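Record type: monomer structure entry
Structure origin: computed from sequence
Chain ID: A
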Amino acid sequence: MLLFISDLHLQEDRPQLTQGFLRFLEQQAPKAEALYILGDFFDVWIGDDAMTPFHHSIASALHQCAEQGTKIHLMHGNRDFALGEDFCKLAGCTLLPDPCVIAPFGEPLLLMHGDLLCTDDIAYQRMRKVFRNPLVNFILRNTPVSFRRKIASKTRQTSQKQTRMKADKIIDANPQAIIDYMQEHQVETLIHGHTHRPARHHHSLKREGQIIEGQRYVLGDWSDQEGWKIQVTPEDIELLAFTL
C-alpha cells in the first residue's frame, strides 16, 4: 500500500494539528510501503538554515518512520518551495520534482502539488515563476533570516488578501491544463493537492485516436480535527478523510 497526503500546513502555533500528524506517522504510515507528501507540508519555509527546534522535531519523527521501513517522498508546495536537501537528509526522505510520474504497481500515476494546474490565476503564476527562479532563490538564501521572515510574512498576507478577492474558478485547476498534463505524461491517473477541494473527478483523454477515461484525485487540506489521505493498492485507489 502507498499513502499520499498534502497541504498539512504544519506550524508551531497549531500543536493539535502537529500531534495529529505525529499520531498518523506512528499509527498509519508504518503500514505503507511509501508515504508521499505532495507539498505545503509546512505553512511556510524560508530556508533549511532557518530551522527551529519545531522543524527538527518533525524531521526526527519522519526519520524514525523511515527507519521502520516506510519510504518517504516529499514534493515542494507553494508554501514550502524553499525546502531543501538539508531537511531531507535529517528527515530521511527523498525530494521529488513537480510533476513526477511513478509506476509502483505497473500503472503510471502522475503526482503534482497542483498549483501548476491553476493557470487561470495569472497573477499567481507570474509570482511563482519569480520565486522559483534559481537566481532569485540564490539571492534570498543569502539574505539574513530575519529579512526572509519579513518577506514571507508580507507575501503570505498579500496572497491571502488576493485569494479572498478572486473567483473560485480562477483559483481552481483549469480543465484544459489537467488534460494537457495527463496527456503529456501519458497517464490515466493524476493525484494532487493545493486547491483544498477533496474529490474524485473524471476526464476524457485522447490516446492513439481513441477517447479514454482518466481519473483525478484531489487531496484535502488538514485541520486540527481531520486529515485527508489517498490509499493506493494494486487493486484500488481510495480518497479518505480520517479523524486526527
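Annotation 1: The chain has a mean pLDDT of 93.
Annotation 2: The first helix runs from residue 15 to 27.
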